[in-house]
Automatic annotation (TrEMBL):
Keywords tagged on the record: NAD, Oxidoreductase
Sequence positions that bind substrate: F155, L156, K157, E158, K210, F255, I256, Y257, P258, G259, G263, K327
PROSITE patterns named in the record: PROKAR_LIPOPROTEIN (PS51257)
Protein name listed in UniProt: UDP-glucose 6-dehydrogenase
MF annotations from Gene Ontology: NAD binding; UDP-glucose 6-dehydrogenase activity
Function: Catalyzes the conversion of UDP-glucose into UDP-glucuronate, one of the precursors of teichuronic acid.
Length: 447
């Protein structure tokens, strides 16, 4: 089929490449000229496992093209996807200006039936606003063209985006138009061969499904961080508790890892946007408020542990930081827990030696050159001569260090394990003090 996609970010580019991989002819359009130029030359703007190969192959084989020309792109597709950003507004609600700009563009150029498919994460009622915006532009040029607007939220995770896109758990299709649903069914048939993955519903329910999924996952994480903070105080180990509750299939093992707080471009903004939607309808979403508050506090947790260990005096100390990206397998640092940590360390007068396998260029872009930040070529170099080591992101390469060697590499003998990767006994056997998240011992050591 012929597909047009507005936006070449995580969602647009991955969706475009995966749809091209299935034999569709895809044109991706973006307003960022430099990005489009680089994509045409096969330079992928983000680190996402497996993406390079499918973008390059499909581009070379003529099934995936890039442009900044909205009119040409709209002339191409039977389906027009909207996959542009919906960043938080000042008050936390979703900023729809990019989505509505695309809707206006569609209305200005449309000349035949198309299905406009919204993949961006948008508040309930946005499909109606997109429909009205396209219709208003058509009316302004006295054009009579039929079209449908479908809500088709995206659930991919960064770091596993291609895999998630090629093998979705479910495909939510929010539409009251049988004609549009039939078009989506045809497009998604190759992803839907062995199991029925399409869940068809009305537009509003589809829009809310996306927020509900993210809010549920964020709730699980904040819940576990809350339990971790209780475990720490009562001398229990949250890692044992996690395994103990995860074994119950009604709870499950997924998304119950305590840590340094959830980050990324989605959970923080989507929990907030859902709260705003609720309050604008006269409902105070108390649970969501708490999920956010617990997360905000958790993002200060590592600094709190470090500061307490050093008796509140960090001036002149050097802290090694392993992991800067908000999660492994990405170079994305949006809302990453590493950021409030770095900033608090600097504020307290500490210097940072950091290593991340992919996010160092992004760190440099965000913070520039500064005396109190040294980006190192590998994990061992980052640890060299530091007063403490903090693990913030659970990259595989950080999972099994040689603790004895690490003790000799570090100047100070202490590890702050923000992802509970290590066995505290193994760390302590090597002569290093260990602090984790909710591992009882954290408090015992500091007493
Ligand atoms: N990142 C994720 O993991 C993820 C997953 C699921 C859903 N989402 C949602 O999908 C949407 C897109 O997220 P993203 O992370 O891909 O965003 P992104 O910021 O990575 O990319 C958005 C792209 O849209 C482009 N753009 C803006 N206005 C445009 C216009 N008028 N025409 C063409 N291009 C335009 C920007 O230049 C940018 O390249 C958001 O609503 C987000 O919440 C994101
Ligand atoms: O048990 C867990 C699981 C995750 N996290 C943290 O939660 C954040 C988000 O992680 P993850 O969900 O894996 O990454 P995202 O790429 O942000 O994906 C989420 O946000 C996307 C955008 O809406 C959705 O499409 C995905 O389904 C949803 O998982 C990261 O900081 C993780 O470190 C934890 O602290 N504990």
């Amino acid at each position: 089929m012929k597909v047009t996609i507005f936006g070449t970010g995580y969602v647009g580019l991955v969706t475009g490449a995966c749809l091209a991989e299935m034999g569709n002819h895809v044109v991706c359009v973006d307003i960022d000229e430099a990005k489009v130029e680089r994509l045409k030359q096969g330079v992928i703007p983000i680190f996402e496992p497996g993406l390079d190969a499918i973008v390059r192959r499909n581009h070379a084989e003529g099934r995936l093209d890039f442009t900044t020309d909205a009119a040409t792109a709209i002339a191409h597709g039977e389906l027009i996807f909207i996959a542009v950003g919906t960043p938080p507004d000042e008050d936390g609600s979703a900023d729809l200006s990019y989505v509505l700009a695309v809707a206006r563009s569609v209305g200005q150029h449309l000349d035949r039936y198309v299905v406009v498919v919204n993949k961006s994460t948008v508040p309930v009622g946005t499909a109606d606003r997109v429909r009205e915006t396209v219709a208003a532009e058509l009316a302004a040029r006295k054009a009579s063209v039929e079209f449908d607007v479908v809500s088709n939220p995206e659930f991919l995770k960064e770091g596993a985006a291609v895999e998630d896109c090629l093998r979705p758990d479910r495909i939510i299709v929010g539409s009251s138009s049988p004609r549009a649903v039939a078009v989506l069914r045809r497009l998604y048939a190759p992803f839907n061969r062995n199991h029925e993955r399409l869940v068809v519903m009305d537009e509003r329910s589809a829009e809310l499904t996306k927020y509900a999924a993210n809010a549920m996952l964020a709730t699980k994480i904040s819940f576990m961080n809350e339990i971790a903070n209780i475990a720490e105080r009562v001398g229990a180990d949250v890692e044992l508790v996690r395994r103990g509750i995860g074994a119950d299939p009604r709870i499950g093992y997924h998304f119950i890892y305590p840590g340094a707080g959830y980050g990324g471009s989605c959970f923080p903004k989507d929990v907030q946007a859902l709260e705003r939607t609720a309050s604008s309808h006269g409902y105070q979403a108390q649970l969501l408020d708490a999920v956010e508050a617990v997360n905000r506090r958790q993002k200060g947790k590592l600094f709190e542990l470090i500061s307490r260990h050093f008796g509140g005096e960090l001036r002149g100390k050097t802290i090694a930081v392993w992991g800067l990206a908000f999660k492994p397998n990405t170079d994305d640092m949006r809302e990453a827990p590493s950021r409030p940590l770095l900033e608090a360390l600097w504020q307290a007068g500490a210097r940072v030696r950091a290593f991340d396998p992919e996010a160092q260029a992004e760190t440099r872009r965000l913070y520039g050159e500064r005396d109190d930040l040294l980006l190192c070529e590998d994990a061992t170099t980052a640890a060299q001569g530091a007063d403490a080591l903090v693990v913030v992101t659970e990259w595989k390469a950080f999972r099994s260090p040689d603790f004895v060697r690490l003790r000799d590499t570090l100047a100070g003998a202490v590890i702050f394990d923000g992802r509970n990767l290590y066995d505290p006994a193994a760390v302590e056997e090597a002569g290093l003090a260990y602090y984790g998240i909710g591992r009882g011992r954290s408090l015992q050591v500091t007493r």
